[in-house]
Amino acid sequence: MTDRRSDDQSVRGALVRRRLALGIAAVVCALGGGTAVTAAVLTDRPAPPQAAGFGDSTPTAAASSVRPATPGRSTRASARPHTSARSSVGPDKQPNRSSLSPSRATDSEPTKINIPAIGVHADFVPLGLTSKGELATPSDPDQVGWFTGGYPPGGPGVAVVAGHVTWNGAEGAFFELADLKHGDRIKINRKDGSTAVFAVRRLATFPKNHFPTEQVYRHSDQPELVLITCGGNYSAAAHYYDANVIAWADLVHS
């Protein structure tokens, strides 16, 4: 006998993943006071088509008021080889059929993130969607944000965290994200007093038109963390980064 509820959930999940795939083409870092990112998506909530930006500025994010990004960042990001998922992921590809689960009230919210290897010590802010359906960005470049439509870091699923690389020419919280190494620890302090510790498993830079949708928005039974900021080459004329730096990490202690 068919479970009607399961069928309904599958249909809703497919529709959400379709919306995500359609909107992901412009994903990430248009950077205007912010960093571009997208976050973990649910089966029963609208998916964020794209993030506003996490770099020094974009035509859609107060470009007229921002100064060029710090030169050093652009140089380091450009020197790193791009790792595109051209063979398996593209802006027109849909995530796999497994869907991410929504945040639960029992999952403790994050309060602070510490990444000793790159000197990150920042407060968390919750990120929702803007009126345009974009993922909001932290209003303070020294803060990072987690998408409240997905799991909080440390919950049983994939949590997505976004941070600025630069802001009006100054360094943002994730300025050194591209310098992470395999095994580097990421410590997340949570509201319940616990600390979730993650170890970096992978770091890669993706051109924006080859955002790894299926590798970021996917189902996982284990607590995982995805950190995203802008990177690649920076255009001072357009106030725009052409890539995203993404780090994947696994929970090692909680």
TrEMBL record:
GO terms for molecular function: hydrolase activity. Gene3D superfamilies: Sortase. It holds the Pfam family Sortase. InterPro entries: Sortase, Sortase_dom-sf, Sortase_F. The lineage of its organism: Bacteria, Bacillati, Actinomycetota, Actinomycetes, Propionibacteriales. Residues 96-105 have a biased composition (Polar residues). Keywords: Hydrolase. This is Class F sortase. The keyword Lyase does not apply. It comes from the Bacteria. Residues 50-113 are annotated as: Disordered.
